[in-house]
Structure formats: C-alpha cells, structure tokens
Amino acid sequence: MGEASGKMNNYDVVIVGAGPAGLAASIEAAGAGARVLLIDENNKPGGQLFKQIHKFFGSREHKAGTRGINIGTELLDDTEKLNIEVMLNTEVCGLTPDKKIWIIENKEISREITAGKIIIATGAYENSVQFDGWELPGVMGAGAAQTMINLNRVLPGHKVLMLGSGNVGVIVSYQLMQAGAEVAAIVEAAPTLGGYGVHTAKVARAGVPFYTSHTIKRAHGKNRVERVEIVQLDSNWKEIEGTEKIFDADTICLAVGLTPMVELIWLAGCKFTFIGSMGGYVPVHDRYMRTTVDGIYVAGDVAGIEEASTAMEEGRLAGISVAYDLNLIDDAQAEKRIEEIWTKLDSLRCGQFGEKRKTAKDRILEEGEGMILCHA
Amino acid sequence: MSCLKKCGAPSIEELRASPGFPTEEDYKTGNIAVIECIEQIPCNPCETSCPRGAINVGNPITNLPTIDLSKCTGCGICVVKCPGIAIHLMDINYNEDSAMITIPYEYLPLPQANDTVTLVDRMGKEVCEGKVEKILSSKAYDLTKLIKVSFDKKYYEEIISIKRI
Amino acid sequence: MTRIKDHPILGKDTREEIVTITFDGKEITALKGEMIASALIANGVHSFRYTEKHNKPRGIYCGIGRCTDCVMIVDGIPNVRTCVTEVKDGMKVETQYGRGEWKNE
C-alpha cells in the first residue's frame, strides 16, 4: 500500500461513519483527550441526519422539538471546536482484529492506518421487496426519495405511492408533500399501520389514503413507473383475487425496513446474533458498546436498527467507553456518564413502540454479558 | 379495530378516551389547546414548552399528556413545539357563528390573511370553507407557521386542518 | 417543476453556479456540487442504464451509493455510482448498457 506523505498513520481512536452515532462518539472521545480520526465515504459528514428535516421526539436532553438538520449542525460545530480530524471521500475497505485499517482516499490513494480502538458506526441500508416491474426506474427506497428531495432538492417524481407505514414511510410521505409532490396512497401489508399515530394522522389529514392488508402486485410502465396495481392480502398474506386497485403514479417508494451495514464488523471477526426486529444480524455488544473483539466498538443502527436519537446516545456511550479503556477518564467519571446516558436510552426505549426495541436490545446485551468479564 | 391504526387518523371516540382531549364543557371555556396524542411515544416537548406549566407528561416520558385548561392561555407554543403536529387551538366562542382554529402548518404555498380556504377533517375530507384571520411566524416556531382560520362553529369537532393549496 | 426552488423548511434554493455536462452527447446544465443523479433527474432523465440480460432500464434506487443501480459511464469510466458522484464542468455522462467495459485495458 502506498504511503501518503505528511499524514498521520496512527490514531488513538478511528471512527468509521460520520453519521449521528459516529459524530457523537467522536465528540466524547476527543473531549476526553483522545486523538480521533473520523472517516466517511461521503463528501459531507452527518450521515442521514441532514435529510431529517422534521422535529425530533424525545425530551429536552434528546433535543426533542429540534429538527434533525439542526441537531446535525450542532454536532458538526462540536467536532470543529474539538478540532477532530475528519477524512471525507474515504472508504474503509478492510480492517483486522489487530486494528489495522485499509482506506482509500478520493478513490485514488490507498493506505493503511492503525488505531488503538475502532468504533464502527456505519449505519444501515434500506431493504427492498420484489414485485412485477420492481426494477422500473421510479421504484426506489423511501430514504432515496428523501435524499433526493431534502439533500439534492429534486423531486424524483410528482405522484408517489408509498409501500410501508412505519415511521420512515409516513415521515417521508409527509416530506414528499412538503417538497411539492402528491402521495397517492400508503400501502401496508400488515393488518395495522406501523408508524406513530401522530405521523399517520398528519398525512391522513392531508388526504392520503391508507391501505392496510394490501401490497403492490405490479408496477406498470414502459421506461418508467406509470401506474401501480395493489391487491388485498388475506390473513395468510395471500393475495385475494379480484381486489386489485390501480393508481396513477410515477414513483413507488419502498419503506420496508433497514439492514445494518455490518460488513466491517464481520471482517473484524466479531460475534453476531440474529434479531429480526433489529434488522437481522447484529454484532453482540455489551452496555459499553464493546464487541466481542477487544478494542472494537459499535454504535447506532449498525448495532441494531433504531432511530437517530438512540444512535447519538449509543455513539456517546461508545466514545466514553473508548476514553475509559484508553485510561483517559477514571472509573467514577465514566460510570457516572454511562449511567446518565443509559437513563436517556431507557426513556427512549419505553412505551408501546420502544418496549419492543428495549427487549431486542436486551437480548443483544445478554449475549454480550459473558464477555464483560473478559474485558475487565 | 382502532381507527388510528387502520385509517391513519384517530376517531372522535378514540380521542375522547385520551386524557389530553377536551370535553364539551372544556371547549366552552374559550381558546384552548386540543391535544390529539393517544399513543405512548417517548416525547414531552408539549410539557417543557408550556410557559404556564399547564401540560403534564411526567415520568416516564411515554405517559400521555394531560392539560390543566384553567392554566392554558391558548398561546400556541405547544402547537409549534409538538414534533407530532398533534396539537391545535380551538376557540368555539370566536364570535356568534364562528369558531377559530389555530393550526400548525409546514407546507408551501402559504395562504394569505383574508383568503378563503377549505377546511378538512382528520381523514382529509373537505368539510366547509373558512377565512384565514392571521398567519403567525416567529423564530421560536422554528419554521412551523401558525394559521388562524375562522369557520362555521357547528363543525368544530370535525375540523383539524386546511386543504393544501 | 422538478427542482425544489422553495421549501417550507429548507427555504429558497440559493445555489446559482451552473456547470455544463453532457448526457449521451447532449448538453445539459447542472448545479455545481450536486450529484450526477440529481442533475439528470432535474433534466427529466430517469433511465440511467440498461441491464445486460434483459436490456431493462434502471434508475436510482438507494440514493446513497450502496445498491449500484444508478451506475453509468462517466468520462469513459463505467460503473460510476451517479448518486454519490459530483458533477464537474465538461463531464461526459453516458447511459451504460450491460456491465460496461474499461477502455485501454
């Protein structure tokens, strides 16, 4: 691998992914005095936070009532104040359990760096579903449409049919209307709607119809989506013939869940567990966000799909525990902060929606329990 | 089957069963905050933003909000702070025939004062016409606008917003 | 309009600097700093490539550089992810048919 001149090759902490979790982790670790490098493959930091133009839920400590974009700006300000080195347009192509990291900068320079500790905060990607015509231009992830309207400021289409009524589906539907598009319908395969009622209510009052126990049968169109055919499902998820309905639409958005982007964690040799409600295979970790490989930590959606607000708290946890494991903060200080953050996480993981996530997260932590002893 | 989880919007029965929703007597007291928050989600900006301490969520923050209407002045700050866009103000005594609703609004274009607009119910169905009395915006609202619309008071329980223009 | 000129939360689009790129030989204008995919969509282009076996059109799918559905030939290089590649003045963007070929190899 080529050596780039004049650049550091060794860091206390390397964080992969400059989204909400990675940014929060970098602030905690650097704030404690660690020499931190934050890497992201995109040309701007922030991950998916800058397309979250809605006001966040939670309480004051979670910045509730503040729009995601503004939370992102605050995080970036903090990383600047702390002079955290951020390497953008940089892909991490490999890493080893002894914490060597192979990076490619600007698709040109290949080099190796080493880290005392690595925090992997690579986030997640959108799931897809297949139906006749699903490959037509105009069929895209709901997050892709959100990127187009809120970051790129172009409408991918003018009339959209949304598949999936979870929070992503309903929030993006609302934001598509804010961007000037029309939402033809929100279609949900399950018998009940998935997202928060307040989100579904605000699109319902905008006149968007919901179809539960329905799915997309096919997309019609020659070079692009022109019409969408939906069909009702029976209690065994079988299509009921004769219940088809056709909508004019030029865009189909799929909001059918996310999968953690865990490739680097597999490469590092960390232990995984399968939890469907967390997005599939997730790395086993303890309450300090340590994986089963010494010195490798995880935070955010890559450690189980949740929300930006929980991702930020997990990032803070990872940053603090890295600082602690590097002997930059003492026992009492670390414990106090970690308890504070767990209180906040617990408050985000309660209620009829959060409880499920808490149960799933507890399962990951249980598997990680044995390893805490190994670390001590 | 819950209307909220089937059609997307709560039914009037579901709302009446929630603690933040006013009774008929409450409506008569004047310009009040109507909270349509019927699911336990982790959220409390309504509570922390209220300058009078009229709204209570407490601990855990998934509790449904309750409101002490004797303290509510109808200032509208909770309306813009609610991330769920689930609060509006309703004044059924606006004048003899009209009620006035104050709604949070985040679409373009904005209507203008004195415009005639179409008011809709929770399912987006057109109910009646109304007149835009005022549009409020402030830095504290963080880009959400408050639109005050007067309309025939007999529809006060149905009306939730205006049709996008 | 496909470009979102004004937005209730994001405000007015203040980007002004324009670059010119070509799409299959035809000149189109793009905003400096934007991604190739968004410039194409703003110009009404939705088919970015055609699949090898069935010759079916594809457009953007994930929008964040993961799925490779939006790849095109850019300045002669095939399989460039247009959703995460910025436009540059004079850039040549071409529809990709099949898997694409690297020239001069």
Automatic annotation (TrEMBL), chain B:
GO terms for molecular function: iron-sulfur cluster binding; metal ion binding. Keywords: Iron, Iron-sulfur, Metal-binding. It holds the Pfam family Fer4_6. The keyword Metal-binding applies. The keyword Iron-sulfur applies. Residues 63-92 form the 4Fe-4S ferredoxin-type domain. It comes from the Bacteria. InterPro entries: 4Fe4S_Fe-S-bd (IPR017896), 4Fe4S_Fe_S_CS (IPR017900). This is 4Fe-4S binding protein. It comes from Sedimentibacter hydroxybenzoicus DSM 7310.
TrEMBL record, chain C:
It comes from the Bacteria. It comes from Sedimentibacter hydroxybenzoicus DSM 7310. GO terms for molecular function: iron-sulfur cluster binding; oxidoreductase activity. InterPro entries: 2Fe-2S-bd_N, 2Fe-2S_ferredoxin-like_sf. Keywords: Oxidoreductase. Transmembrane segments: none annotated. Pfam families: Fer2_4. This is (2Fe-2S)-binding protein.
